[in-house]
Amino acid sequence: MTSQVTPAFSLEFFPPRDAAAQQRLVDGAKQMLVIEPHYVSVTFGAGGSTRDGTLDTVRTMRGLGCDAAPHLSCIGSSRDDLKALLQRYRDEGVRRIVALRGDMPSGMGASAAGALHHASDLVEFIRQETGDWFHIEVAAYPEMHPQASGPEKDLAHFVHKVRAGANSAITQYFFNADAYFDFVDRVQAKGVNIPIVPGIMPITNYTQLMRFSEMCGAEVPRWIRLRLAEMGDDKESIRAFGADVVTSLCETLLDNGVPGLHFYTLNNAEATLSIWRGLGR
Ligand code: FAD
Questions:
Q1: Can you say how many angstroms the Cα of residue 54 is from the centroid of all Cα atoms in its chain?
Q2: Measured from the CB, is residue 168 less than 6 Å from ligand 1?
Q3: What is the DSSP letter of 113?
Q4: How far is the centre of ligand 1, averaged over its atoms, from the C-alpha of 254 (Å)?
Q5: 78: Cβ below 6 Å to ligand 1?
């Protein structure tokens, strides 16, 4: 897989919970402008818990001069809710959206799942309601979505989601480049050629990384786990080792012609910037 296309970099943020976190987010985002992000995206809480937070953060990012894409998950929402939100984003001039199923908050029964059950239903709905207004990004899982019954089924669902009207995809994070290239090959073998941009997770905290990875089905290779575990509470060593590992993954991906990199910044500018500096761009 090699291409001549200049890679496009994007950054993901989550809505801050209070005024102090908001200020840190703005300061960090300003520092990260050096990356010249093609766009930034803003996450959306399951069940709509941060609906206003997502819109506020989209506005903040647009105020910094970034093209900002809200994430929108369909689980737990009615068609009317989704339609109203899409209209709000249109009114704001937003042209890009990350369309997801989302996850049910724990403790909520299946009856609260909402009108649309898969991200493909949401993509179809967005196209029905808004035509080609939005550039639609969807999620991809090189190491398989944790609830899928098998890699082939998951691939078929991904292809269906793209054919429902997605323009490009962002992957779940991974640390094994082969998993990504194998996934892209299998997608292309099905005749689907949209850009599939690797999602990049900086490593700064062992416990948090293991917890996230357990939930989302991303594999942390044994050698990385062992090295991090041995570092215990030595945050500096974890950060330095994490930056080396992830920078080297990014180099491999870029050398092999990926269409871009999407950084899961976790609102932590330094973690992403240390990788960026390592890439020497
Ligand atoms: P889908 O594409 O619907 O897939 C979910 C599962 O359903 C898969 O196992 C798939 O194989 C299966 N499936 C799909 N279609 C069918 C079908 N027709 N029949 C049977 N099974 C089917 N979560 C949030 O809450 N907020 C966010 O902001 C957020 N941002 C994310 C950004 C990225 C880039 C990624 C990779 C994930 C993000 N997530 C977010 C997590 C995401 O919501 C979860 O991974 C969720 O479990 C699946 O969402 P999806 O859009 O991939 O779902």
A1: 14
A2: no
A3: S
A4: 26
A5: no
Q: Which of 212, 213, 140 is nearest to 182 (CA)?
A: 140
Of all protein residues, the one whose alpha carbon is nearest to atom 28 of ligand 1 is: 43
Q: What is the pLDDT of residues 81-131, one digit of tens each?
A: 999 999 999 999 999 999 999 987 766 666 667 889 999 999 999 999 999
Whether 154 lines ligand 1, by a CB cut-off of 6 Å, is yes
Q: Where are the beta strands (DSSP E) in the chain?
A: 8-13, 39-42, 68-73, 96-100, 135-140, 168-173, 196-200, 260-264
Asked if 92 and 58 count as a contact pair (C-beta separation under 8 A), the reply is yes
The Å distance, Cα 233 to ligand 1 centre, comes to 33
Helix, strand, coil percent values for the chain (each to nearest 5): 50, 15, 35
Q: Which domains does the chain have, with CATH numbers?
A: 8-279 (3.20.20.220)
230 in active site: no
Question: Which tens digits make up the pLDDT trace of 166-192?
Answer: 999 999 999 999 999 999 999 999 999
Q: How far apart are the first and last CA of the chain?
A: 21
pLDDT at 5 over 80: no
- The CB of 198 under 6 Å from ligand 1? The reply is no
Evaluate if residue 46 carries a pLDDT over 60. Answer: no
| Amino acid (one-letter) located at 126 | I
Q: What is the pTM of this model?
A: 0.96
Residue 34 has what pLDDT?
98
Task: Report the pLDDT value the prediction gives residue 1, as an integer from 0 to 100.
Answer: 65
